[in-house]
Amino acid sequence: MNNAVINFNTDPKLKSEAKKVLNEMGLTLSIALNASLRRIITERKIEFIAPEIPNTRLRKSFKYAEKEYKSGKMKVCKNYKELEKHLLSL
């Protein structure tokens, strides 16, 4: 079998953790990367999944919005037309 070598930079901790998880699954980093490349080729796309856990900035925004809502300062619209009217008035 003819092989090509791909070199790329990654965080050493990321590589180590990935190798550990893959080893627990009975796989190698090479197998996982080849599977990923094959999927890109067949599907003609690559997906990046954002974590579902909000980051610090988003959590602060949630707290601020909740505070504004409870204080009555936040405008609550009952429908799209009302929202549109409000946004256009700003």
What secondary-structure arrangement, pairings included, does this model have?
Blueprint: H1 12-24, H2 29-43, H3 56-71, H4 80-89
Describe this protein's structure:
- With 90 residues, the chain is mainly α.
- Among the domains are: 12-43, no CATH class; 65-89, no CATH class.
- It has helices spanning 12-24, 29-43, 56-71, 80-89.
- The longest helix has 16 residues, at 56-71.
- The chain is elongated and about 65 Å long.
- The mean pLDDT is 91.
Strand content: under 5%
The run of helices and strands is HHHH
Report helical residue fraction. 55-70%
What is the distance, rounded to the nearest whole angstrom, between the alpha carbons of the first and last residues? Answer: 65 Å
Assembly type of the shown chains?
single chain
Taken from the alpha-carbon principal axes, the silhouette is elongated
Strand segment count: 0
Gyration radius (Cα, Å) is 24 Å
Q: Spans of 5+ residues with little confidence (pLDDT < 50)?
A: none
How is the biggest beta sheet arranged? none
Mean pLDDT: 91
Number of helices: 4
Structural category: mainly alpha
What's this, in brief?
The protein is mostly helical and 90 residues long. It has four helices and no strands.
What are the defining features of this structure?
60% helix; 90 residues; RelB/DinJ; elongated; Arc_rbn_hlx_hlx; single chain; mainly alpha; Type II toxin-antitoxin system antitoxin, RelB/DinJ family
